[in-house]
Prior knowledge:
By secondary structure, this protein is an alpha+beta fold. The chain has 23 helices and 18 strands.
Amino acid sequence: MLQSIRDRSKSWGAKIIIGAVVVTMALFGVESLVGLLGNSGDEVAQVNDEPITRQQLEIEVQRAIRSGQVPPDQERALRAEMLDMLITERLLTQYAEEGGLYVSEQQLDQLIVTLPEFQDAQGRFDRELFRNRLASAGFTPLSFRQQLAVDLKRQQVQQGLAVSDFTLEEESERLAELQRQTRSFQYHALTADDLASAPELQEQDLQAYYDAHQGDYRRPEQVKVNYVVLDRQQMAAEVKVSEEALREAWQAGAAEADRRVSHIMVTFGDERSREEARARLEQVQARLAEGEAFDALAAELSDDTSTSDAGGDLGVISRGFFGEAFEDAAFALGEGEVSGIVETDNGLHLIKVTELDRPALEERREALRAELALEQVDDAFNERAQRLIDDSFAADDLASVADDLGLSLEQSDWVGREGGDGVLSEPGVMQQAFSGDVLEEGYNSEVIELDEDRRLVLRVAEHRDATTLPLSEVRDEVEAAVREAKTREALVELATRRVESLRASETLEIDWQQAESVSRQGGSALPEALVQAAFRLPHPEGEQPVYGHAVDGERVMLIALERVQDGEPNAQMEAFVANMAERLRAQAAIQGLLDDLRDKASIDRL
């Protein structure tokens, strides 16, 4: 949990740029989603009166998907996690800015030009490469700089907390000793069957437990809602796509597919003129026409000595890694075709595509079918979405809207403001359900854009206020909780008596199980509660074991600690433990700050 919070509160924009942007994620940037989603400023949360909009959430979700961090089919489940991340980041950003932390333009410039992802083969910053990779990840140069500045401020906060803590050398040595220590002990599990009789449940016990835990039995304000969902994906699933259309789309995809290319390069300048270089390549073209092999001619005539021995092979290329002229020529070729003479900054080239790096039609069939089907229903979806807006606004019910649009009218069970399952867990849905117009006036809700493919309208069917459920309604739950607690108390009492008898050297019939040389690092099948309790016991003196007990769920474990061994030194493990201790200290400091910020903040999920 701590590592997750720490990781997420680091540079999110930089993570996507630096960690995944080397893969082409799309033909257009994520910021183009603004057009798809509309200019809606609907808020999904407020953090100290600063809004987080639905658009910001959607952009982060799409960036995560396109960077390869999350499969597209998990997109809907991703939103709650992304919203938590945005809230955490907003809290850290506010704290950093309130503290006056500052990142200069010069610092940003220095960081950007030193990132290897934006450097050419000679290690120099390449402005064109910078822009291309930003565009692939959905950033403009300005939006990337702004995001990077915010990320650096958050990192200043985290790094300041991390380096403010330290470990003394004596502490590190003692920690290493404790970490490699092992213990040998016997154990025995006491269960409800070991009790002479089951604990009796008195009415006053139930009432006392219920009175002390009424918060556990409080039912929040709830509604039942009727709702309809217009789903572009569902519409597309009903569309038939012809085999001919699939093949045409697959063939068209070859135009932008990554490809393996070879080239023959002839330079000009000091050794030869441009005209001489062109004449040399024209001779190569003539020899190719006569049937000579491209790779043999590359080995003989190419000035690119780094590839000539491999027949001119440059490997698999994507757009954005070579110059525009070279890529335009390479991506205009089919497999096995050779370009005309192409001029770039470093010479003249003949380019051959030796292989298209694309999956077979059968591998792409379902994805292509889905893409083509979505294109076919696009106009119909937009038309039905507009009708949904018009009909739901004018109608006095939701059933007529569902009938008019051919949609299923769904009804939920009781659900509170925190949301329910499926679409009722999406941001903004329950905010609409509990809004004044919908809950109090009885109107249909506004059309809610769940994402680019789904629109939802709901209407409250029933409403009930928050209340504490009476004992009569939750009696079974209370009885189960009291029985479990009383059984555990009885087992602890039994374990305490047996431990006292063992310490007094009394002989008891106990079926002990042996555990040899158990380490703190785990690796055994023993319950964690048992191992922790064994390591909390004092060292045995002489041959007499040290006795104790541990609570493990519904069982209570007797423990007889026999030996404590120092364990073998392990430099690698001890270095790891020391490093982990430092990280845990830093994470605890960061988590402490986050907990404090959350406690003091005004956070509203809408």
